[in-house]
């Protein structure tokens, strides 16, 4: 677990509550596993990052593809909206002292954030991805992370999609491009995380 960080994405009430237009059907069920792996990482000295959304109250930063449903659904995940659809995390996933908290303006945890800068300053090379949703925020973060030469491990039972079919297909796609897919139980039981060399490191060894 050395040089590893946990990236917990968008585990917020606006994505977990059925009354929200941003609701993800499978997300609520993953909360216990997400909380357990976050605590395990803290115990192991692994940095925990909570990367989340917070839309502006006027909707000027809401994705254009979501704006109509966001407006009609009570402006979830924005200041002043109802508590049940807010940006707040569930009680089990409240950040703790020492955790990192970042806001992202789009799907990927890297897009428009200082995540890459902080990870490099910490000497991190492997990322554990957890949170919601698998085809959007997890997948884009996975692709961006690989593009930035991080080793990526996706925790299958700590991620969620609208349907099981979508979940399986997206996990398989990420595995096919080189991400490691494993369960939180496998991680906590000591299944090794892959540590692939970057192209520059491989070249330097030749």
Helical stretch tally:
8
| Class inferred from helices and paired strands | alpha/beta
Major pleated sheet: 6 strands, parallel
How many strand units? 6
Order of strands across the widest beta sheet?
3-2-1-4-5-6
Which overall shape is indicated by the principal axes computed on the Cα atoms?
Answer: globular
The rounded distance between the terminal residues' Cα atoms is: 27 Å
What's the mean pLDDT score? 94
Please state the CA-atom Rg, rounded to the nearest Å. 17 Å
Strand residue content: 15-25%
> What letter string, H or E per element, gives the SSE order?
EHHEHEHEHEHEHH
Low-confidence stretches: none
The helical percent reads: 25-40%
Can you tag this structure with a few keywords?
206 residues, alpha/beta, 6-stranded parallel β-sheet, 8 helices, 34% helix
Task: Write a structural description.
The structure is a single chain. The chain has eight helices and six strands. The protein is an alpha/beta fold. A six-stranded parallel β-sheet has the order 3-2-1-4-5-6, sandwiched between helices. Helix 5 runs parallel beside helix 6 (164-176). The protein is globular, with a radius of gyration of 17 Å. It starts with a strand and ends with a helix.
């Amino acid at each position: 677990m050395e040089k590893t960080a946990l990236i917990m994405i968008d585990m917020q009430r606006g994505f977990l509550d059925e009354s929200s237009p941003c609701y993800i059907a499978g997300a609520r069920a993953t909360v216990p596993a997400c909380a357990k792996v976050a605590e395990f990482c803290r115990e192991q000295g692994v940095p925990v990052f909570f990367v989340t959304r917070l839309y502006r109250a006027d909707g000027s930063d809401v994705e254009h593809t979501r704006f109509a449903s966001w407006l009609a659904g009570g402006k979830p995940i924005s200041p002043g909206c109802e508590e049940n659809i807010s940006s707040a995390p569930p009680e089990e996933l409240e950040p703790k002292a020492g955790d990192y908290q970042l806001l992202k303006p789009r799907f990927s945890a890297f897009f428009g954030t200082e995540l890459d800068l902080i990870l490099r300053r910490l000497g991190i090379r492997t990322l554990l991805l957890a949170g919601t949703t698998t085809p959007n925020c997890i997948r884009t973060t996975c692709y961006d992370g690989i593009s930035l030469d991080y080793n990526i491990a996706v925790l299958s039972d700590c991620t969620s999609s609208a349907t099981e079919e979508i979940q399986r297909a997206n996990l398989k796609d990420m595995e096919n491009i080189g991400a490691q897919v494993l369960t939180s139980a496998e991680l906590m039981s000591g299944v090794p995380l892959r540590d692939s060399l970057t192209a520059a490191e491989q070249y330097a060894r030749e």
